[in-house]
Design a protein that fits this description.
The chain has two helices and 24 strands. It is α/β, with parallel strands linked by helices. It folds into two domains: 2-92, Rossmann fold, CATH 3.40.50.20; 93-204, 3 Solenoid (UDP N-Acetylglucosamine Acyltransferase, domain 1). The strands form four sheets. The protein has an eight-stranded mixed sheet with strand order 6-9-12-15-18-21-23-24, covered by helices on one side. A six-stranded parallel sheet has the order 7-10-13-16-19-22, with no helix packed on it. Strands 3-4-2-1-5 form a five-stranded mixed sheet. The longest helix is centred in the first third of the chain and has 15 residues, at 11-25. Bound molecules: coenzyme A (COA). The site of coenzyme A has 14 residues, from strand 23. Coenzyme A binds next to strand 23.
Protein backbone atom coordinates (compact mmCIF):
# COMPACT_ATOMS: atom_id res chain seq x y z
CA UNK A 1 0.00 0.00 0.00
CA UNK A 2 1.30 3.45 -1.00
CA UNK A 3 0.21 6.23 1.37
CA UNK A 4 -0.96 9.50 -0.19
CA UNK A 5 -1.23 12.78 1.73
CA UNK A 6 -3.73 15.28 0.32
CA UNK A 7 -2.45 18.87 0.53
CA UNK A 8 -5.53 20.98 1.24
CA UNK A 9 -8.73 19.97 3.04
CA UNK A 10 -11.33 22.35 1.61
CA UNK A 11 -14.16 21.52 -0.75
CA UNK A 12 -11.88 20.81 -3.70
CA UNK A 13 -9.61 18.56 -1.60
CA UNK A 14 -12.63 16.61 -0.42
CA UNK A 15 -13.57 15.86 -4.03
CA UNK A 16 -9.98 14.70 -4.62
CA UNK A 17 -10.22 12.49 -1.49
CA UNK A 18 -13.48 10.99 -2.73
CA UNK A 19 -11.82 10.12 -6.05
CA UNK A 20 -8.75 8.57 -4.39
CA UNK A 21 -10.91 6.53 -2.01
CA UNK A 22 -12.99 5.18 -4.92
CA UNK A 23 -9.90 4.34 -6.94
CA UNK A 24 -8.37 2.59 -3.91
CA UNK A 25 -11.59 0.62 -3.34
CA UNK A 26 -11.41 -0.41 -7.00
CA UNK A 27 -8.06 -2.05 -6.31
CA UNK A 28 -5.14 0.37 -6.78
CA UNK A 29 -2.20 0.49 -4.42
CA UNK A 30 -2.61 4.21 -3.67
CA UNK A 31 -4.47 4.94 -0.43
CA UNK A 32 -5.26 8.43 0.90
CA UNK A 33 -4.23 8.58 4.57
CA UNK A 34 -5.08 12.16 5.53
CA UNK A 35 -5.16 15.85 4.72
CA UNK A 36 -2.75 18.69 5.52
CA UNK A 37 -4.24 22.19 5.59
CA UNK A 38 -3.05 25.57 6.91
CA UNK A 39 -6.54 26.44 8.23
CA UNK A 40 -6.16 25.76 11.95
CA UNK A 41 -9.96 25.49 12.30
CA UNK A 42 -9.74 22.19 10.41
CA UNK A 43 -6.99 20.73 12.62
CA UNK A 44 -7.86 17.36 14.12
CA UNK A 45 -11.17 17.12 12.26
CA UNK A 46 -12.04 14.02 10.24
CA UNK A 47 -13.42 14.40 6.71
CA UNK A 48 -14.67 11.43 4.65
CA UNK A 49 -13.09 9.22 7.29
CA UNK A 50 -9.64 10.82 6.81
CA UNK A 51 -7.94 12.95 9.50
CA UNK A 52 -6.70 16.52 9.01
CA UNK A 53 -3.22 15.85 10.41
CA UNK A 54 -1.64 19.31 10.46
CA UNK A 55 -0.43 22.14 8.25
CA UNK A 56 1.27 21.77 4.85
CA UNK A 57 4.55 22.96 6.40
CA UNK A 58 4.45 19.82 8.57
CA UNK A 59 4.59 17.48 5.56
CA UNK A 60 7.85 15.84 6.71
CA UNK A 61 6.31 14.88 10.06
CA UNK A 62 3.82 12.41 8.57
CA UNK A 63 4.78 9.13 6.93
CA UNK A 64 3.77 9.03 3.29
CA UNK A 65 4.85 7.76 -0.12
CA UNK A 66 3.26 10.44 -2.31
CA UNK A 67 1.19 13.63 -2.26
CA UNK A 68 -1.39 15.40 -4.35
CA UNK A 69 -1.95 19.16 -4.23
CA UNK A 70 -5.70 19.69 -3.85
CA UNK A 71 -6.25 23.44 -3.71
CA UNK A 72 -8.70 25.17 -6.06
CA UNK A 73 -6.92 28.53 -6.44
CA UNK A 74 -4.56 28.18 -9.40
CA UNK A 75 -1.71 30.35 -8.11
CA UNK A 76 -1.68 28.76 -4.66
CA UNK A 77 -1.91 25.28 -6.17
CA UNK A 78 0.97 26.12 -8.56
CA UNK A 79 3.18 27.49 -5.75
CA UNK A 80 2.68 24.48 -3.49
CA UNK A 81 3.03 22.02 -6.39
CA UNK A 82 6.38 23.53 -7.43
CA UNK A 83 7.59 23.52 -3.84
CA UNK A 84 6.75 19.84 -3.20
CA UNK A 85 8.16 18.82 -6.58
CA UNK A 86 11.43 20.66 -5.79
CA UNK A 87 11.64 18.58 -2.61
CA UNK A 88 11.46 15.40 -4.70
CA UNK A 89 8.02 14.30 -3.53
CA UNK A 90 6.18 11.76 -5.67
CA UNK A 91 2.98 13.41 -6.92
CA UNK A 92 0.01 11.24 -7.91
CA UNK A 93 -2.96 11.82 -10.19
CA UNK A 94 -6.61 11.50 -9.08
CA UNK A 95 -8.76 10.24 -11.95
CA UNK A 96 -12.38 9.35 -11.29
CA UNK A 97 -13.36 5.91 -12.61
CA UNK A 98 -16.28 7.53 -14.46
CA UNK A 99 -14.00 9.75 -16.59
CA UNK A 100 -13.37 8.67 -20.20
CA UNK A 101 -9.91 9.32 -21.64
CA UNK A 102 -8.65 8.27 -25.07
CA UNK A 103 -5.78 5.82 -24.67
CA UNK A 104 -3.18 8.18 -26.16
CA UNK A 105 -3.97 11.18 -23.93
CA UNK A 106 -0.75 12.36 -22.23
CA UNK A 107 -1.09 13.35 -18.59
CA UNK A 108 1.32 15.31 -16.41
CA UNK A 109 1.75 14.83 -12.66
CA UNK A 110 -0.77 15.84 -10.00
CA UNK A 111 -3.68 15.95 -12.45
CA UNK A 112 -7.23 15.75 -11.05
CA UNK A 113 -9.98 14.51 -13.38
CA UNK A 114 -13.56 14.40 -12.07
CA UNK A 115 -16.59 12.27 -12.84
CA UNK A 116 -18.14 12.67 -16.27
CA UNK A 117 -15.07 14.20 -17.94
CA UNK A 118 -14.31 13.19 -21.54
CA UNK A 119 -10.84 13.77 -23.05
CA UNK A 120 -10.38 12.88 -26.70
CA UNK A 121 -7.47 11.61 -28.73
CA UNK A 122 -4.22 13.51 -29.16
CA UNK A 123 -4.70 15.76 -26.13
CA UNK A 124 -1.85 16.72 -23.79
CA UNK A 125 -2.67 17.69 -20.19
CA UNK A 126 0.05 19.45 -18.19
CA UNK A 127 1.04 19.09 -14.54
CA UNK A 128 -1.29 20.02 -11.67
CA UNK A 129 -4.28 20.56 -13.97
CA UNK A 130 -7.91 20.27 -12.80
CA UNK A 131 -10.47 18.88 -15.26
CA UNK A 132 -13.61 19.49 -13.25
CA UNK A 133 -16.96 17.69 -13.28
CA UNK A 134 -18.37 16.80 -16.71
CA UNK A 135 -16.11 19.04 -18.78
CA UNK A 136 -15.20 17.89 -22.28
CA UNK A 137 -11.74 18.36 -23.77
CA UNK A 138 -11.80 17.43 -27.41
CA UNK A 139 -9.06 16.12 -29.69
CA UNK A 140 -5.53 17.55 -29.87
CA UNK A 141 -5.93 20.08 -27.07
CA UNK A 142 -2.93 21.37 -25.10
CA UNK A 143 -3.78 22.25 -21.50
CA UNK A 144 -0.97 24.10 -19.72
CA UNK A 145 0.36 23.33 -16.25
CA UNK A 146 -1.79 24.50 -13.31
CA UNK A 147 -4.84 25.28 -15.49
CA UNK A 148 -8.38 24.68 -14.23
CA UNK A 149 -11.14 23.64 -16.63
CA UNK A 150 -14.29 24.17 -14.55
CA UNK A 151 -17.45 22.03 -14.45
CA UNK A 152 -19.43 21.79 -17.67
CA UNK A 153 -16.85 23.50 -19.91
CA UNK A 154 -16.57 22.40 -23.53
CA UNK A 155 -13.26 22.82 -25.36
CA UNK A 156 -13.41 22.18 -29.12
CA UNK A 157 -10.67 20.40 -31.09
CA UNK A 158 -7.12 21.84 -31.32
CA UNK A 159 -7.64 24.29 -28.44
CA UNK A 160 -4.67 25.56 -26.41
CA UNK A 161 -5.15 26.69 -22.82
CA UNK A 162 -2.20 28.50 -21.23
CA UNK A 163 -0.55 27.79 -17.90
CA UNK A 164 -2.58 28.71 -14.83
CA UNK A 165 -5.70 29.73 -16.77
CA UNK A 166 -9.22 29.27 -15.38
CA UNK A 167 -11.98 28.47 -17.86
CA UNK A 168 -15.10 29.26 -15.80
CA UNK A 169 -18.11 27.03 -15.28
CA UNK A 170 -20.06 26.20 -18.43
CA UNK A 171 -17.83 28.19 -20.81
CA UNK A 172 -17.12 27.06 -24.38
CA UNK A 173 -13.97 27.53 -26.46
CA UNK A 174 -14.50 26.96 -30.16
CA UNK A 175 -11.99 24.84 -32.09
CA UNK A 176 -8.43 26.05 -32.82
CA UNK A 177 -8.52 28.94 -30.37
CA UNK A 178 -5.88 29.82 -27.76
CA UNK A 179 -6.45 31.27 -24.30
CA UNK A 180 -3.18 32.71 -22.96
CA UNK A 181 -1.52 31.97 -19.65
CA UNK A 182 -2.97 33.06 -16.29
CA UNK A 183 -6.19 34.33 -17.85
CA UNK A 184 -9.78 33.88 -16.67
CA UNK A 185 -12.76 33.14 -18.89
CA UNK A 186 -16.05 34.01 -17.16
CA UNK A 187 -18.66 31.40 -16.43
CA UNK A 188 -20.89 30.67 -19.42
CA UNK A 189 -18.75 32.65 -21.88
CA UNK A 190 -18.05 31.62 -25.47
CA UNK A 191 -14.48 32.13 -26.68
CA UNK A 192 -14.64 32.71 -30.43
CA UNK A 193 -11.29 34.54 -30.84
CA UNK A 194 -7.91 34.05 -29.19
CA UNK A 195 -7.63 35.58 -25.71
CA UNK A 196 -4.26 37.04 -24.63
CA UNK A 197 -2.34 36.09 -21.49
CA UNK A 198 -3.21 37.69 -18.13
CA UNK A 199 -6.68 38.73 -19.33
CA UNK A 200 -10.18 38.36 -17.95
CA UNK A 201 -12.76 37.85 -20.70
CA UNK A 202 -16.53 37.40 -20.37
CA UNK A 203 -19.67 37.11 -22.47
CA UNK A 204 -20.83 35.63 -25.74
CA UNK A 205 -18.64 36.25 -27.64
CA UNK A 206 -16.04 36.65 -24.88
CA UNK A 207 -14.58 40.15 -24.68
CA UNK A 208 -11.58 41.17 -22.59
CA UNK A 209 -12.63 43.31 -19.59
CA UNK A 210 -9.28 43.29 -17.79
CA UNK A 211 -5.77 42.88 -19.19
CA UNK A 212 -3.42 42.65 -16.23
CA UNK A 213 -4.64 39.89 -13.99
CA UNK A 214 -2.01 39.90 -11.26
C1 LIG B 1 -15.26 36.62 -14.85
C2 LIG B 1 -15.22 36.74 -13.35
C3 LIG B 1 -13.88 36.21 -12.83
C4 LIG B 1 -15.31 38.25 -13.05
O1 LIG B 1 -15.30 38.43 -11.68
P1 LIG B 1 -14.94 39.90 -11.10
O2 LIG B 1 -13.55 40.26 -11.50
O3 LIG B 1 -15.28 39.87 -9.64
O4 LIG B 1 -15.85 40.87 -11.94
P2 LIG B 1 -17.29 41.48 -11.62
O5 LIG B 1 -18.20 40.49 -10.95
O6 LIG B 1 -17.07 42.80 -10.96
O7 LIG B 1 -17.86 41.70 -13.10
C5 LIG B 1 -17.30 42.66 -13.98
C6 LIG B 1 -18.26 42.82 -15.15
O8 LIG B 1 -18.28 41.60 -15.91
C7 LIG B 1 -19.61 41.04 -15.92
N1 LIG B 1 -19.45 39.60 -15.78
C8 LIG B 1 -18.85 38.94 -14.76
N2 LIG B 1 -18.85 37.63 -14.99
C9 LIG B 1 -19.49 37.44 -16.15
C10 LIG B 1 -19.81 36.29 -16.92
N3 LIG B 1 -19.45 35.08 -16.49
N4 LIG B 1 -20.45 36.47 -18.09
C11 LIG B 1 -20.79 37.69 -18.52
N5 LIG B 1 -20.50 38.82 -17.84
C12 LIG B 1 -19.87 38.70 -16.68
C13 LIG B 1 -20.32 41.66 -14.74
O9 LIG B 1 -21.71 41.68 -14.94
C14 LIG B 1 -19.71 43.05 -14.72
O10 LIG B 1 -20.30 43.83 -15.73
P3 LIG B 1 -20.60 45.41 -15.52
O11 LIG B 1 -19.25 46.05 -15.31
O12 LIG B 1 -21.27 45.81 -16.78
O13 LIG B 1 -21.45 45.51 -14.31
C15 LIG B 1 -16.37 35.96 -12.63
O14 LIG B 1 -17.61 36.62 -12.79
C16 LIG B 1 -16.52 34.54 -13.18
O15 LIG B 1 -17.28 34.26 -14.11
N6 LIG B 1 -15.75 33.62 -12.56
C17 LIG B 1 -15.75 32.22 -12.94
C18 LIG B 1 -15.85 31.39 -11.64
C19 LIG B 1 -15.78 29.92 -11.94
O16 LIG B 1 -16.36 29.40 -12.86
N7 LIG B 1 -15.00 29.21 -11.08
C20 LIG B 1 -14.83 27.79 -11.18
C21 LIG B 1 -15.20 27.16 -9.87
S1 LIG B 1 -15.17 25.42 -9.94
Amino acid sequence: MQRVLILGAGGHAQVVADILLRVHDAGTNWKPVGFLDDDSALAETVILGLPVLGSIAQLDEFDHDAVIVAIGDDRTRARIFESVRARGEQIVNAIHPAAVLAPDVRLGEGVMICAGVVVNTGTVIGDNVILNTSCTVDHHNHIGNHAHIAPGVHLGGDVTIGEGTLIGIGATVIPQRTVGAWSVIGAGSVVSKDIPAHATAVGMPARVIQTARS
